[in-house]
Amino acid sequence: MSAVRPLAGAAIGVVLVAVLLAFGPPVVAGWLNGTSGASGESLFTLAIFGPMLAIGIAGWWLDRVTGPVFGKRPGRATVLGLALGAGGLALAVGYTWLAGSLVGGAGSTVLSTLLLGIVTVTLQVGAEEMLFRGWLQPQIASVVGAPVAVLLVAVLFAALHLLGGATGVMTLANLTLGGILFGLIAVRDGGIAGAIAAHWGWNVGEQMLLGLDPNPGVGAFGALFDLDLVGAARWGGSDQGLNASLAMTIALAAIVIPLALRYRRAKPA
């Protein structure tokens, strides 16, 4: 296969999403005309990540990516992915507790908004994984191989978060590690079911269960518990929370390194 088509398609996809993330938010905010709270957050996410999902699906279909998009054993992959995502989050939070950064807040929640939040996060996570690991990663891998593709797409994943408000070297490093984790899971499973589950488990756990994002306080959807991170930024005590913490780096590395080594051993000679 010529390298031109898959790489050109991937480049077009990245540009389209970059334009969407750069110019979409102010346009959508104008459409919503001050709609706030859980409904406003949900509509905003739908308006941004709905098109992102459409781009991912269209690219996957037009480029005829081989193999089932969710993998051959999506049920098993989902369970294992969820365990990795939730387990990684638990490990990161454990490190913040050991560092003395984890404290209780005073937030509260309403069940209806919490359920809406879970649906909203599911859309966001599904859109990102369909785009990055469902379409871009296998397309790039068809030219440069899976290991390089996992790394390149993880870097793109982190870089595009700059347009969503992510800042700082540590935050970008952690987002890249997260992208590598999801990419390795997708390679292992031959599809994105496990990657979606891992991403979902981390995000829902961080936002809806523990209330760690945003930091401090809770988001528009509320959380079952309101935990905050205080003190040194390297242990999450900044407005970037866990994303800018060494705790997240250690937790992700503890999962990524064994997965990468396992992939290397399993790779045919």
Q: What topology does this entry show?
A:
Elements: H1 4-32, H2 37-62, H3 74-98, E1 102-104, H4 111-144, H5 146-161, H6 169-189, H7 193-209, E2 227-229, H8 246-266
Antiparallel strand pairs: 1-2
Helix pairs in contact: 1-2, 1-4, 2-4, 3-7, 3-8, 4-5, 4-7, 5-6, 6-7, 6-8
Notable traits:
269 residues, mainly alpha, two-stranded antiparallel sheet, 8 helices, 2 strands, globular
Query: Separation of termini?
Result: 22 Å
User: What string gives the helices and strands in order?
Assistant: HHHEHHHHEH
> What is the total domain count?
1
Strand share of the residues?
under 5%
**How would the global form be characterised?**
globular
What's the β-strand tally?
2
Strand order of the largest sheet: 1-2
The Rg value, from CA coordinates, equals: 18 Å
Low-confidence stretches: none
Q: Kindly state the mean pLDDT as a whole number?
A: 92
Secondary structure: helix percent: over 70%
Separate helix tally:
8
Label the structural class: mainly alpha
The major beta sheet can be summarized as: 2 strands, antiparallel
In short:
The chain is mainly α. The protein has helices spanning 4-32, 37-62, 74-98, 111-144, 146-161, 169-189, 193-209, 246-266, and strands at 102-104, 227-229.
Describe this structure in words.
- The protein is mainly alpha-helical and 269 residues long.
- It is 70% helix and 2% strand.
- The protein has helices spanning 4-32, 37-62, 74-98, 111-144, 146-161, 169-189, 193-209, 246-266; strands spanning 102-104, 227-229.
- Strands 1-2 form a two-stranded antiparallel sheet.
